[in-house]
Amino acid sequence: EQASPVSASGTVLSIAMCSKAEEMMAVGTAEKTVLIFSVPDLALVAELRHDSGVHSLAFTPCGGILAGSGGGAVVGSPTSCHGVGQAVQLARTAVWRVPQDGERCRNLGSIFTISRARALAFSADGSRMAACGDAPHVHVLRVAVECRCVAAWRCSPGIRCAAWSPNDRHIALGGEDGAVSVLDASTGAALFRLPAVSGHVGMLAFVSGGSRLACCFHGSNLLRFHPLPAACDRGAGAPAKPKHVVKLGGRGQGFLNTGTFKAPADSTLFARVAARASVMSDSASVAKVLGMRLNDMHMQPSENRAQASLAHEDEVMSLEFGPGGALVAAGEDRTVVVWDIERRAKSFESKLGVPPVAVAFSPSGRFVAVADSDGGLTVWDLDKAEEIGNAQLDEGLLSLAITSTPKEMLAVGTSAQSVLLFTVPQLDQVAELRHDGHVHSVAFSPTGEFLAGGGGTDLTHGLMTNKLESAMMKTVIWRFDAAGGECTYAGSTAFKNIVHVTRFSPSGKLLAVGGEDSKVTLLLVDKDFVKTSELLCVAGIRTLAWSSQSRFLAAGGEDMQVSVWDVIRESVIFQLPKRTDWVCSVAFSPDDRWLASCGFGSSCIDIQPVDYVEKEMPMSRLEDPTPEQVGSRSLRYLDSTPVSDGATQHSFHLQELEEAPLFDDDDDDADGAGDDDGSGSGVGGEVAPAASLVQPVNPNIYKSAGTVKFASEVEGAAVPVCVVKVGSAAEGFRLSLTPAADSLPDEDLLERIGARKSIMQDPDLVSDALGMDTRPAEIRFAEGAEPRFLEHQDEVMALAFGPDGSKLVAGGEDQAVALWEVATGSKLFEAPIGGTVTAVAFSPSGNIIAAACAESVSVWNASTHEKVDEATVQGDIKSLAMTSVPTELIAVGTTANSAVLLSCFPRLEEIAVLQHDGDVRCLSFSPDGSLLAGGGGGIDNSHGLTVSSPRSTHGMMTVVWRVAPDAAGCKYLGSIGFDKPVHAAAFSPSGKLLAAGGEGCAIATLLVERDFDKASDLQCVAGVRCLAFSAGSRFLASGGEDLQVSVWDLVSERVVLQLPKAQDWFTSLAFSADNRWLASCGFGSLGVSLHPVEMVLPGSDAEGDAGET
Q: What span, in angstroms and rounded, lies between the C-alpha atoms of 931 and 929?
């Protein structure tokens, strides 16, 4: 029988039921509510609020948790790494705990997505939830871990419904394209796809046994049942084949090359290889060892063919040529493109959901693989021009390589200190190869016998120049047994800095390795990868590419230039024009006719045509040069020298190398006694024996012999980090503020400003100068609203509101950073940080939150709650500040008498060090992001016990810098001196005022547009530790050593509101963006206090205008 109907206010958009304990029904409406009814009497049990229409609902199988998704409201103006974006709508999926009686229903949290989630589904065991909708991804969330996203699989956009199979092996998706797809619930791989029909899919459901899938469609009166194909029987439920794990070998297991390569200044690659091989008189044997012809070969930019550019929509990050000359490329435009170079046309193109980080072309020419920044791995079959496989990995993906010999195999370098091996195209993982660091580069040898993985872990992202051995900066070599298919650890070669690229020569005889040590190291493959040559560069290396005959090597990276080396002569023969930013990827075409490159700052692939000529090289050209020839080498220019046949020889001259023996003077083998036959000799004298670094011949073999260096003054060398020093009085404004008043007692701020600008008769001009409404106004506690307390486990030291006031980030002695939803008082996110949180910041875009602990600063995505990056600076961190204009920047104030400016995208990278004369205790960006104020004073070793502090010794000042996303735009503007250390500085939201306070028991307000001329002094009863402006810039809250928060009216210069007295000092304050809340924290309080306030303009209806600024 039909139960009594019930009416719901608003259009019903979704419905869900559960039967555990008691029958319940949830109804989502267009009126931003979810109504909970008991069944069958349909009595209203609870009403849950949402911020938009609820388009999808789902209960967990036990019925204790309910999720509801919908559209969203404008929450800010997110900023990408390319500039300021537009305000967007974030879609919210709310999660509630729903007891049977409805009396204790509560919000557990919210999940935000850029696009609307139209379909929600819990797995049969209730451990996972799938959310999908307008975006081309299905997100899988782990329910027990705060609904954290554990996978994001690609799918068709516009998904309207989703269903889990009863055994949780499969997820079925249907949407606006009328097609139904079934994915493997473990890997996200597409198992099969039903033919599309007209009209979008309305609903999906598995039958109880899971053998069939039922679906219906809008515009169709048929209910369709589809049996699952046999492919689904091999899904996630099948027992997984144990993957082969290859661990790093210890001493005695494989070769171990340690120390650093060193060669005499008058030594050539030919001579060193000949000495090792005992074949000095046989150039053919040397050629065989090197895997190249020893012809007098020269490569140069073509004079007959024009350069070309292949345009993408954004920066191109990775490229690689295929065996047939096709070029695959991908980058920030989230597009994978295969180019026909000769026709300058695209032969294949596919869109991705997220930016890729690496691409690879199989030697067979059939497959292209791409790794993306979300851990996604995708393979396309170019013969079929379609995607044939994808996988979602938990690890961060950094690099890719494919071999086709003896079979198609894909290697993936990860941030989880491992290389993963997959079959192609099935993408079945067959092995995990352990590394000790992040694997930034992987490369197969041409025969597929060896795999090289170069890397190292740099948590400071380049901020620490002298890295420790714990960074595991090495290249690991693995060997494959073609017959048995077994993979084993072969050995490793240690380096002094992070390795970013490894490349086998086409002959397979040499392995080139480059990285942040500003050199390219060549290793002899057949000699247990012993180091045989170092090509010194002016900056870090990020990419390498061999010519087809293994003779020439192109290198690019942080010097913003592609240099082509002649490996035999160990010299640069030509360079491509300088770029505006780092080179990310370079590649030779298989026929050596083209050299392609791409990098940051350019949305085009540069195609340089190249030519080369060859003739037999006389033996005298291969042997060691005379000392006179060595001394004539210089680094900075190309030289063209006529030769006998009328041709022109081009050579890149190197600066003179330091004279040094092969070993130190006290080394036992310095006299050459270690040579096997003692007969090796070269031009100018006996050749010193090569240092064999293959273990375990001699323990002394591991002694470092030093490094090959350029002379100290090399024009064009790597530019050090920009350091902005504190200037003199002639290099910027320099003010001195004293407690003595410079105005009459009855003179207020308006009168002083009006007198200075001679505009007293025009109140509008005075308001403009101050950046605020100067009409009488009132701030008071909000009537009918109760204070709130956000509880932590220990004292909270710092807090910050998000740009719309809906979220608040806080942290302190509980050694964790927490993100709170202000409206509900619920904790959205919490992350341990490993120590006391000393400072936090929320980006004005709302995209990023930051927290500091000791010498480390960490940043998280405010929406996904995923950690973005972590950086270490010199000195303990005292303060943080963020801006989002013109891009996301973070300033870090330290005890090292400096503020460090970092960019946030794509990783934390140091831009400049802004010097101060004392500890930088507070920082504040101007609203437009062009100015940064840093207050300090301290090297106060007495911690405030000394009453009188000489200013000259403690740098008690607020320094103002002009800042920009690039170091060239950072500049010292001036400083304001104080008599006591400065603990708080804040720009007003209008950008017209800068407030500064500290141990001087006063707050100074400064006029920004008048070189920070002092506008007023607000006298306090004790030292000031924190300041916060209201949204309209009219009111200023201060707190500190008087144990009380006071709110000042800046026009009348009087305290108009005070919060209740606390037990100890306040450490942080903030107004919400809507002026509805004033948040505070400090010593002696285990949480954040939220005080409701309202602002009223006199003359208006106090009740109706409450809350108006």
A: 6
